[in-house]
Predict the structure of 2-C-methyl-D-erythritol 4-phosphate cytidylyltransferase.
Amino acid sequence: TPTAVVIPAAGRGVRLGPGAPKALRALGGTPMLIHAVRAMAASRGVSLVVVVAPPDGADEVKSLLDAHALPGGPPSGSWGRTDFLVVPGGSTRQESVRLGLDALPPEYGIVLVHDAARPLVPVDTVDAVIDAVREGAPAVVPAVPLADTVKQVEPAGTPGEPEPVVATPERARLRAVQTPQGFDRATLVRAHGTVTDDVTDDASMVEQLGLEVVVVPGHEEAFKVTRPLDLVLAEAVLARRRL
Ligand code: CTP
Ligand code: MG
C-alpha cells in the first residue's frame, strides 16, 4: 500500500519565542522543516510528503523544498523517489492536518502524520510505524517512557499560584507520545470528520472513535522542538551526528 506523510508545519511557535514561523527556523543552518521532510523521505516506504505550510507561506515553502532537492536532480515537486505537495494550513494543528489530508491523491492507503517540529526522528522509528500499520493496526504511535513522575493537578486560576494535586498515575504505565503517527487512511479521515474536540495528537481522535491504538518504541531524538532549550539540544544532536 502506498504511504504518504502529512507534515503539519503551519504553527507560529509561540513557545519558542519571537522570530520566523517555527518550521522555518534554522537548525544547523537548514530550516527545521527541511530536516523533517528529509527524515520522512529517508524511509523507502514513503512516496509522498504533503507539507502544510503557514497560511500565507505556501509559495515560500514550495521554493524552499525545490531549493533543497539534489542539484541537477529531479523536476520541481520531487526529491527523487519522494514527491511533495505544499498546501496552506489553518489556525489549529487539527485543522492543518485535515487540510493536508484533503490534498492526498486517492492511491495512498496509509498516512503518517509528522510534526515539522520533530526534525531529528531516526528513519528506524518511521519504518517501525509504517510496518505496524501494514501489519493491520488502524493507528500506531511511537512513544517513550517518562523520566519525570507526572501529577494531575487542579489548575490554579492565576499563574504561579500553588495547585492542589489530584492524582499520581503510575509512571511505569505512562508513555510520552511522539510522531510520526501512522494510520489506515480511511480511519484517520473518519476521525478528522467526526471528532471536533480540541486534541493534541491524531491518535486520540481514533481512540474517541472506540478503535484500538497501539504504541511502538519511539526514540529520544524524536523529541519536539518546543521551547528555546529544545533548540540547544537539537543543535547538539545534529553536531554529534556530523562528527
Ligand atoms: N501546527 C500546524 N498548524 C497550526 C498549529 C501547529 O501545522 N495551526 C504544527 C506545527 O507547525 C508543529 C506541529 O503542529 O509542526 C506541533 O505543534 P507545536 O509544537 O505546538 O507547534 P506550534 O503550534 O507552532 O508552537 P506553539 O504551540 O508554541 O505556538
Ligand atoms: Mg501549538
Notes: The helical segments are 32-41, 58-67, 93-102, 123-134, 185-194, 203-208, 228-241.
